[in-house]
Write a structure and sequence with these properties.
The complex is a heteropentamer. By secondary structure, chain B is mainly alpha-helical. Chain B is built from 20 helices and two strands. The longest helix of chain D is centred in the last third of the chain and has 31 residues. Chain D has one domain: Helix Hairpins. Classes of the chains: A mainly alpha, B mainly alpha, C mainly alpha, D mainly alpha, E mainly alpha. Chains in contact: A-B, A-C, A-D, A-E, B-C, C-D, C-E, D-E.
Chain lengths: 501, 514, 750, 98, 179
């Protein structure tokens, strides 16, 4: 065997198991889940959520050890796979989002007669994909990880199998996703063709050496579109509201947070490790990002004004937020040290508050069986705790200090204004306007909860199971903490500064 | 203890109410009495710390920041947890910690419909934290954070416990203010970079903005403009005032009181401390004419607005537009004289209009309407309340010997001689118009007083047993305010002496070459 | 000297009374015992005021006349006054006049020489102050300024107030707000005293406004009836209009005098040409607006008759001693400002004189057509205030104050008398329909009333004669004055004629005119009131009769007055020094003019006589038979018939014209045009308020905001239609967007 | 051989695929059109691979694997739709909109 | 091996390969168009086989034997079968059906497709104007190189794709099964 290997010139790649530990744990967890299901059959269902929760928590452990280890930047496979602190932060974001999603799902899935252990398997797979994508610095790695995080999510979106809405949600998501994948792939192929390498850093160098050809421009555009779909940037957003509304709500939470963040991470990888290094690529990235960002925030927020369903409203709000998160990319070339942290910070805070909001929606729906805004009427009377939590999350989404969202928006704004280009100023103004528009519909929710009378005077309290409570606690603590002491987050997010750009 | 308070007093006073709110959250809703006691204790504790600060404050150094706190906060954006109190902030700080306990006391039996004392009081306490924090913050970002904290509790106070149009009013309030803050924060950021201070500390920004060539003239004017919109909405100045009558009219009594007494002051305080205090004189001088014209329009406009009202509370609300116009008139002169007057005006307006809203609220509770057409003969039905209303009207129209006069008259006086470099003709014209505004003030306030208090009660209320005279919680809540109105009316020096040293620094900043 | 440095006690006492009465309240004090506190405090204040007056007299009559300009500031605390401070430091230099155009007529040196030559002793005002507050670099003091003028007012105010207090204890007995009434009476007195003692203009504003407040509270004392509260509002708001002038005027003075509020400073600087003429002119015009409202001058006087809605003692107080004279007092206080600002010296017309003269005449015309006795008196006050303002306007400073002094007594007497009548006669003031024939029933009231009327009409030797004559002389129309104000003289003479006439008419209606026509509501026949009403009447009538002797001319009808009697008032009250216009700027005193005195007396008598003939003619008819029987009587009758002829002439032609078309027109003008303008301004304000509010505020300003919101929502709604739910449309959007973006990009990148 | 002839062929296939997904309403046919697009990408990758290193072909292999997975998932979903609706016309999926 | 069949050994002129390419390309385009236009579902599947086969031939032309073989195996062997199963299971109309297209979409789809094509061709022609495809002259395959690469540089994607397939499998089963 060894001889054969030697003859073929194949050398076993140096493996840094420590760096790969989170992924290994996740993969092992997936196997365990399948095994439990296979061995215990029906009885295993009860453990599925616990196991997946534990697996996710276990995966956090190596993240911590990696974070405190001396070698903060580990590069594997010739730079195709990098574990640095920003990657760790993002992995942590994904894994914890995954954990919160598990908490949100526990009762939902158990009580809804779904396929439980398979659900968690797919969820974990998706989280694994996200974890991988945050380290991948190579076209193929990114592509495969992207597919791994997408394909299971298509399926869990349709998980409420007999519900035609859920089916529709899943199918729309799937088809649009595949379109996006195809465009992404086409773009990647051109990128590879133009540079001759699949490594982002090499691509960056090669593209830099020559001038940007139309094909490169096209490639960059197609790549951005491919991921733009994932982050539901307008005009590639159309799946999002429908899917969010139709999918099981915990899945929606997962899609709107983890999956969207993964899209951003992919874009960040491309922009920061590849395009950013040369100005001609930037010439392509900036206008494209500008258009996507401006359209997303405006269209998303405007349509959200008209929504009566909380989930659908959150979908559009997510589209609008995506516009905000994208915005700093227009100054990425000159202001890398501000743009990147501000996006990462936004992602983290956005995840916390959005998951929290969905958590409240799920909790409230336990009583109302509905996600209409009007179903939340008078919630102050029947669920004061949830009302306060929801208000915190809504306030955070609006961006009111000192609740997390303000700092997210603030940091984006700050980098835009610091960039001091026409593009960035325009976006800063748009964000200001959109913040006000957005406030209107977020307020509608608080209005229903606080100001209206309970429907039919029904003020029986809602029963919130412990897992949901835990999820809400995690998200609200994170939301508040990041708002009051943003330095907790900024210190971690600022690390990419040290990466030598 | 003393050392601790010297080091952390401002943080303590800021967060004490929040601690109270947290405690209250842990107490079940049914324990209403306990809730009230906790709220009262928390706010009184803050008042006690406030009094301690008042006692320990070094009045000889009233121009400089005292009780300073300066700790690490958000390193990456160079923002620090920096607080301090000087002669400008001190009166407002004390006003805040004094008003809130009174509001809590007033609420003792007056939790407006739909009840829920717990939520109501918690929101008030959160509000208090926000207001105190804004007055003591010495870092722009910290200021901004506190400035915004105020938003939500007020929104809920209006929206849940307000009148019929409460939802509209609440949202209007919210969106207006939010819009203003958006521009304000942009201005802060722009100032941060363009000045090159690399810090959000007010003093450092002040110094950095004055380095020759640091800020171009255009940049100065634009940055000031951003701040202007943010603060002008809060003040509110014409034409950004339309949220105010709605918010005031719809807010529950305590909400109106806090809104009038404290929240509006955030705007004017911002003008003094930040817009004028930090920005170089070029910007202030460019904007001062705008300020003076808008504030003068506000004075007349607010008065006319009052005259057109049929609802007592709305009338009082509109009068705020006019009164804050006087305050802004003082500020726009960019002189120490005018700004002192403005600060006095802020406190006086807080006391007086706060009282007016208290009375209006109590009347609403008794009459269930504030339609001027239906009111009348308050002096017959509830003579004490009627006289209190008359007293407050007199104070509000700027009668000498009561606090209102010392905010109004010196402001008008200051407008005669604005800071060097400002158009005397313009300011003097505005001064005369503002002086005419005082006639209107007398007109609408007395008209209101006549319609509500004189004459005999209308038939529908003639023998209404609900119309009782001032109750005990009302007395407790009102007496300190009434006494303060007289006290400051007779001894204006109590406040002017405190604010003067600090204001001189601000005025010097706004002066040519300052 | 103690009295001179501690006059603050005088306003402090009634203030104390106000606080005490208010705090003790009805419950502790009992329903009708507030007056004891009030009366005793005012009495003490009066005694103190008398003491102060005594001290001032001895202070002014010091043995060695002080002639140095510097000495004038000897008792001015340098803390209070910048001028005093610099005088103390630099001596004469600090107050040397600046030679400017408007003082060119009489040069600097000449003035000096004259002053020294005349050997006139300088007034030495006593100014004490304490720091009140400071703002920026400006210091604000509170203090007292004692000179002849303020001493005079102290005495007048406390005296009238005391009498009114006593009178009220009977008059408003049993009123539902008795306690209240006294509390505000106290505050009213205190405010006026505070105003009078003001050391600086800011303090004056405070006192001025407080007086306004009290008048509001007292006029609206019976606020249950809407007309009363309307009147109170009208009074306050009209005063506020004038206050604008006061505020602006004092502010201008503050700055142009170099940042000082001090009256002495302002006066000295105005007098020595250190304030520009423009500033003085503008300031004095602004201040005139204040005078017009406060002192009920024409155009802004309409509140005054309405203010009769208040209890009568209040009217007496307002019209005699407090409130309305505040305007006169203020002008007198800041006289150099007006003197130089309006160039009173050597001129023949100025705003102040015109306002005063017009008011004097118009007021008296208006008094003709009133049925309400208090309104007659109110218009009379308007007219008399016009006299005072004219006096100030023509430069007859002393005359103005002298008239203020005498007028206070007889007008108070008249008002209290009117109150006494109404108190006895069923609480009506309608003299035409509800009174009549009271001469016998109320003799004390009758006599005091007649004396006061005589004084008002200017009948020799009652007080009004002296003071009015001084004013007429002061116009310089008939002899040497500060200027030559012919028009003022003519107007005032006409006014004097009317005054005598309408007052006589009042007497006819009230005391004669057949039998009592009113209804006492079951209190039996009208009868004289008790001593608490009668005694003040007697005191006031006495003073009204003799007060004129305070300023006897030096020489009258060839008789030299002894030095100790002549011009005592002028000597004690009129300031001399750099803080007051002196001879140097053409300020002189008109001498007593025999011709004018007799002329004016004749005018007054003519007024009385004509009215007498007109009204009493019905009483003459029973004498017809007598005339048939008696030759003397026949002669008398013929004379009377001749008089009749004249009567006809006067009645139908002159009086008729005056009474009907002119006065009615004036009244119509007053009620419709002026009131109309005032009401119209109010209505316009309200109407424009509605326009502003409904259209602009709710429409435009709010509309823009709401419109934007609606627009955004609707756009959102439109956009959300693109979200059709159809997968393939999404796909089209997806690929089309990709293609278009790609196309644009490729073309752009090349 | 020019590399462009392969690339253009791929582009044509890509666009035909795009046309396909836009007009086809039958779910299975849409999936087929997607295969056209994915294969176009593969042609690209392999064509570029001749110019550069082997990673183009590796990429193509991965794409084939992923495409298989996608088709599998897609068909499963089509079946799911068919179960409840008895139709796989994708334009009948319009319950969620707005 | 197949390159050798095409005479790659003595390959200097591009003529034969070009001819082959032209034929294959023409067939592919035709077949592809038929896939998206035919009114018979089964025909579409069969045309798809043609296109996929054509792609495989193109791989061969490009000397990527391993990929070509995989293409044949996976696509033609598996995926097309899957499609046919899909057609059967969904009881698609086996004959001609007008119901397969959304006719209203045709114009816009054509416009989008042509626009896309224009843009892509423009970009491609501008970029790779006349670059030639280099040819290995040896008959040796690069399969080893391929496997080396997969198991070293692309190890992680390889492992990930296995998880992906597993997940897809599990999910597809759950979704597709009756329950």
């Amino acid at each position: 065997m060894g001889g054969l290997i030697a003859a073929a010139g194949w050398a076993p790649p140096a493996m840094d198991w420590h760096a790969l530990a989170p992924e290994v744990i996740l993969a092992a967890g997936i196997c365990v889940l399948i095994l439990v299901d296979v061995v215990l059959l029906e009885r295993g269902k009860a453990f599925a959520s616990a196991i997946s929760g534990l697996v996710l928590l276990a995966a956090v452990v190596p993240l911590l050890t990696l974070a405190v280890s001396d070698d903060t930047s580990r590069s594997l496979f010739g730079g195709a796979y990098v574990v640095d602190r920003s990657a760790l932060l993002l992995k942590a974001l994904f894994i914890i989002s995954g954990y919160v999603t598990v908490l949100l799902s526990t009762n939902y899935v158990a009580e809804g007669e779904y396929w439980e252990s398979e659900y968690y398997t797919l969820l974990l797979s998706s989280v694994l994909g996200m974890s991988v994508i945050s380290s991948s610095r190579d076209l193929i790695g990114i592509f495969i990880a992207f597919e791994l995080l997408s394909i299971p999510s298509y399926m869990i979106a349709a998980w409420r199998k007999r519900d035609t809405r859920s089916q529709e949600a899943g199918f729309k998501y799937f088809l649009m996703g595949v379109f996006a994948t195809s465009v992404l792939l086409y773009g990647m192929s051109l990128l590879y063709g133009a540079s001759g390498s699949t490594l982002l850093s090499k691509i960056g160098e090669t593209v830099e050496s020559g001038r940007a050809t139309p094909a490169v421009g096209l490639a960059i555009l197609f790549v951005l579109i491919g991921f733009g779909f994932k982050i539901s940037a307008v005009p590639f957003h159309s799946w999002a509201p429908d899917t969010y509304e139709g999918a099981p709500t915990p899945v929606t939470a997962f899609l709107s947070v983890a999956s969207k963040s993964a899209g951003f991470v992919a874009i960040l990888n491309f922009v920061f490790y590849c395009f950013i290094q040369n100005s001609s690529a930037t010439d392509v990235v900036v206008p494209v990002v500008f258009v996507l960002s401006a359209l997303s925030m405006t269209v998303g927020n405007l349509i959200a004004l008209k929504q009566d369903n909380v989930v659908r409203m959150l979908a559009y709000s997510g589209i609008g937020q995506a516009g905000f998160i994208l915005a700093p990319l227009v100054v990425a070339h000159d202001r890398l040290s501000d743009a990147l942290p501000s996006i990462v910070v936004y992602l983290v805070i956005y995840s916390a508050m959005n998951l929290g909001a969905f958590g409240v929606v799920i909790a409230a729906a336990r009583k109302t069986r509905s996600a209409e805004i009007s179903s939340m009427n008078g919630m102050l009377q029947w669920a004061p705790g949830l009302t306060v939590l929801m208000s915190v999350f809504m306030a955070s989404l609006i961006g009111i200090p000192p609740i997390g969202g303000w700092y997210a928006k603030f940091s984006v704004w700050r980098s835009l204004l610091q960039g001091a280009t026409g593009w960035s100023y325009a976006l800063a103004v748009l964000i200001a306007i959109n913040t006000a528009i957005a406030a209107a519909y977020y307020l509608r929710v608080t209005k229903a909860m606080w100001f209206e009378e309970a429907n039919d005077g029904d003020v029986t309290p809602v029963d919130v199971p412990p897992s949901l409570r835990l999820a809400l606690a995690i998200t609200v603590v994170a939301t508040l903490l990041f708002g009051i002491v943003p330095s907790l987050l900024t210190d971690a997010a600022a690390v990419p500064l040290a990466l030598g750009h | 203890m003393n050392t601790f308070l010297h080091d952390w007093g401002l943080a303590v006073i800021t967060f004490l109410p929040l601690v109270g709110a947290a405690v209250m959250m842990a107490i079940p809703r049914a324990e209403e009495q306990l809730q009230k006691i906790v709220a009262l204790v928390a706010s009184t504790a803050a008042l006690a710390v406030g009094i301690w600060i008042l006692a320990e404050f070094d009045y000889d150094r009233a121009g400089s920041m005292q009780f300073e706190i300066n700790r690490r906060w958000i390193e990456i954006i160079h923002s620090r947890f920096s607080m301090g109190v000087d002669g400008i902030a001190l009166p407002l700080l004390i006003l805040t910690v004094a008003i809130i306990p009174l509001c809590v006391i007033y609420s003792w039996n007056h939790i407006p419909s739909p009840g829920n004392a717990k939520a109501f009081l918690i929101l008030i306490l959160i509000l208090e934290t926000g207001v105190i924090g804004s007055f003591v913050a010495h870092d722009l970002i910290l200021f901004f954070v506190f400035f915004e904290i105020v938003l939500l509790p007020m929104y809920f106070l209006i929206g849940v416990w307000g009148g019929e149009q409460r939802q509209y009013a609440a949202i209007k309030f919210f969106l207006y203010t939010l819009f203003g803050s958006a521009l304000m924060i942009v201005a802060f950021l722009a100032l941060f970079w363009l000045s090159g201070a690399n810090s959000f500390d007010m003093t450092e920004l002040h110094n950095a903005a004055r380095v020759p060539g640091a800020l171009s003239n255009t940049a100065q004017v634009l940055i000031f403009g951003g701040m202007f919109v943010g603060f002008a909405i809060k003040v509110p100045m014409f034409p950004f005032h339309t949220w105010l009558p709605d918010a005031h009219t719809q807010a529950p009594t305590v909400g109106s009181v806090i809104l009038a007494a404290l929240l509006l002051k955030l705007g004017t305080y911002g003008f003094v401390r930040i817009a004028i205090g930090i920005m170089p004189s070029y910007a202030s001088h460019k904007w001062a004419p705008v300020l003076v014209v808008l504030s003068t329009i506000g004075i007349i406009y607010g008065a006319l607005g009052c005259l057109a009202q049929t609802d007592m509370k709305r009338l009082i609300a509109f009068s705020s537009v006019a009164h804050m116009g006087f305050t802004m008139l003082g500020i726009s002169t960019l002189t120490d004289f005018g700004i002192n007057a403005a600060i006095f005006g802020m406190v006086a307006h807080g006391l007086i209009t706060g009282m007016l809203f208290f009375v209006a609220g109590s009347m609403k509770e008794r009459y269930h309407t504030l339609e001027l057409k239906r009111l009348g003969g308050l002096l017959v039905s509830a003579p004490k309340m009627g006289w209190i209303l008359g007293f407050c009207s007199m104070a509000s129209l700027g009668l000498p010997g009561l606090a209102g006069f010392w905010g109004e008259f010196p402001a008008i006086l200051a407008a005669y001689n604005p800071a060097e470099g400002l158009s005397k003709a313009l300011f003097r014209t505005c001064m005369v118009i503002a002086a005419i505004g005082t006639v209107f003030a007398a007109g609408y306030l007395l008209w209101m007083f006549q319609r509500t208090s004189f004459g005999t009660p209308k038939d529908e209320f003639a023998d209404d047993p609900h119309i009782t005279d001032v109750s005990r919680p009302e007395w407790i809540a009102w007496t300190p305010l009434l006494i303060s109105i007289v006290l400051f009316g007779f001894l204006p020096g109590l406040m002017f002496d405190v604010t003067n040293p600090a204001v001189k620094i601000v005025a010097a900043a706004a002066g040519i070459g300052g | 000297m103690w009295f001179l440095t501690h006059p603050w006690l005088i306003p402090a006492l009634p203030t104390l009374g106000f606080v005490v009465i208010l705090l003790l309240g009805k419950r502790l004090l009992g329903p009708a015992r507030a007056h004891w506190i009030a009366i005793s405090l005012v009495a003490v204040a009066f005694v103190l005021a008398l003491g102060t007056a005594g001290a001032w007299i001895s202070h002014s009559d010091h043995d060695t006349p002080v002639t140095s300009e510097v000495a004038g500031y000897a008792h001015v605390d340098p803390k209070c006054s910048q001028v005093a401070a610099s005088v103390a430091a630099e001596g004469e230099e600090a107050i040397a006049p600046v030679a400017t155009a408007h003082t060119s007529e009489a040069g600097h040196g000449e003035a000096e020489g004259e002053a020294a030559e005349g050997g006139e002793s300088m007034s030495q005002p006593v100014v004490r102050c304490a720091s009140w507050w400071s703002n920026g670099d400006s210091q604000f003091n509170i203090g007292t300024m004692l000179d002849g003028q303020s001493v005079l007012m102290l005495v007048v105010v406390t005296l009238v107030s005391l009498l009114v207090h006593i009178y009220s204890s009977e008059y408003v007995k049993g009123d539902r707000r008795y306690t209240h009434f006294y509390a505000f009476l106290q505050l009213f007195t205190a405010s006026m005293l505070f105003f009078v003692l003001a050391e600086n203009t800011l303090q004056m504003i405070v006192g001025w406004e407080l007086v306004g407040l009290c008048s509001f509270a007292l006029i609206g004392h019976w606020w249950e009836e809407k007309p009363n509260s309307d009147a109170a509002l009208k009074a306050f708001i009209t005063n506020r209009v004038g206050d604008v002038g006061l505020l602006v005027g004092t502010i201008i003075l503050f700055f142009s005098a170099g940042g000082t509020w001090n009256v002495i400073d302002i006066n000295t600087r105005a007098n020595t040409g250190r304030i520009s003429h423009t500033a003085l002119l503008v300031a004095s015009c602004c201040l005139i607006a204040a005078v017009m409202s406060k002192s009920g001058q024409f155009v802004l006087h309409t509140w005054l008759p309405d203010a009769m809605a208040g209890p009568t003692p209040v009217s007496a107080l307002i019209h005699a001693a407090t409130m309305v004279v505040a305007g006169i007092y203020m002008v007198a206080r800041l006289y150099p400002v007006f003197f130089h600002g309006l160039s009173i010296g050597g001129s023949s017309i100025n705003l102040l004189a015109v306002v005063g003269a017009v008011t004097g005449l118009f007021g008296s015309l208006l008094a003709f057509v009133q049925k309400d006795i208090k309104k007659v008196l109110a218009y009379s006050t308007v007219s008399q205030l016009g006299f005072m303002v004219t006096a100030l306007g023509v430069g007859a400073w002393t005359a103005a104050l002298f008239h203020l002094f005498t007028h206070a007594f007889f007008k108070a007497c008249l008002f209290l008398g009117a109150g006494s009548l109404s108190h006895a006669a069923g609480h009506s003031f309608n003299m035409v329909d509800d009174m009549g024939g009271l001469r016998k029933k109320m003799p004390t009231t009758f006599w005091t009333y007649v004396i006061a009327t005589g004084a008002l009409a200017g009948i020799f030797p009652l007080a009004g004669f002296w003071s009015k004559d001084e004013i007429l002389a002061g116009t310089g129309g008939a002899n040497d004055g500060v200027g030559t104000y012919y028009f003022a003289l003519i107007m005032l003479l006409l006014a004097a004629f009317c005054t005598a006439a309408y007052m006589t008419r009042t007497i006819w209606y009230v005391f004669y005119n057949g039998e009592f026509k009113g209804d006492t509501h079951g209190h039996g026949d009208p009868h004289e009131n008790g001593p608490r009403i009668a005694v003040p009447l007697v005191i006031l009538a006495t003073l009204g009769a003799v007060a004129g002797f305070a300023n006897l001319p030096k020489k009258m009808l060839g008789i030299e007055m002894p030095e100790s009697l002549a011009l005592r008032f002028e000597h004690l009250v009129e300031p001399v020094g750099a803080f007051f216009p002196g001879h140097g700027v053409g300020f002189t005193h008109a001498e007593f003019n025999n011709l004018l005195a007799i002329g004016s007396l004749l005018v007054a008598l003519a007024g009385v006589g004509i009215v007498y003939a007109f009204y009493w003619k019905g009483a003459l008819r029973p004498l017809h038979g007598l005339a048939e029987r008696n030759g003397m009587a026949r002669l008398g009758k013929r004379i009377l018939e001749n008089k009749y002829y004249l009567d006809w002439l006067y009645t139908d032609v002159i009086v008729g014209f005056i009474k009907k078309p002119l006065a009615a027109a004036t009244y119509w003008f007053n009620q419709n045009v002026i009131d109309g303008v005032v009401n119209g301004v109010g209505k316009t304000a309200v109407a424009s308020a509605h326009i502003v509010y409904d259209q602009i505020d709710q429409g435009v300003v709010d509309g823009v905001v709401n419109g934007t919101a609606t627009f955004a929502t609707e756009t959102g709604g439109g956009l959300s239609k693109t979200q059709s739910g159809r997968l393939q449309q999404y796909a089209v959007l997806f690929f089309a967007a990709a293609a278009v973006m790609a196309g644009v990009l490729v073309l752009a990148v090349k | 051989m020019l590399i462009n002839q392969f690339l253009l062929l791929a582009a044509i296939l890509f666009c035909i695929g795009v046309y396909g997904v836009l007009v086809r309403r039958n779910g299975v046919l849409v999936l087929m059109s997607i295969e056209l697009i994915l294969n176009a990408v593969n042609i690209n990758l392999v064509a570029f691979g001749t110019q550069h290193d082997i990673s183009g072909q590796v990429f193509a292999l991965f794409v084939i694997a992923v495409a298989a997975a996608e088709v599998g998932v897609g068909l499963a979903m089509v079946l799911l739709l068919y179960r409840t609706r008895r139709s796989i016309n994708i334009d009948e999926l319009d319950e969620l909109k707005g | 091996m197949i390159a050798a069949l095409l005479g790659a050994d003595s390959f200097t002129g591009a003529v034969p390969t070009n001819i082959a390419f032209a034929i294959v390309a023409a067939m592919m385009i035709f077949a592809a168009i038929r896939v998206v236009t035919t009114r018979n579902v089964v025909h579409a599947a069969l045309y798809l086989v043609l296109v996929l086969g054509g792609v495989g031939i193109n791989f061969l032309l490009l000397q990527a034997e391993f990929v070509a073989i995989t293409q044949f195996l996976v696509y033609v062997g598996a995926i097309v079968v899957l499609f046919l199963f899909g057609i059967m299971l969904t009881k698609a109309p086996l004959g001609v059906s007008d119901d397969l297209d959304n006719r209203k979409q045709r114009p816009i789809a054509a416009i989008v497709g042509l626009l896309m094509l224009a843009v892509l061709s423009f970009a491609l022609i501008k970029t790779w104007t006349d670059q030639k495809v280099p040819f290995r002259l040896s008959a040796a395959t690069n399969t080893t190189e391929l496997s080396d690469s997969i198991f070293s540089t692309y190890l992680i994607p390889f492992e990930v794709v296995s998880v992906l397939l597993l997940a897809a499998l599990i999910g597809a089963i759950v979704l597709a099964r009756k329950d």
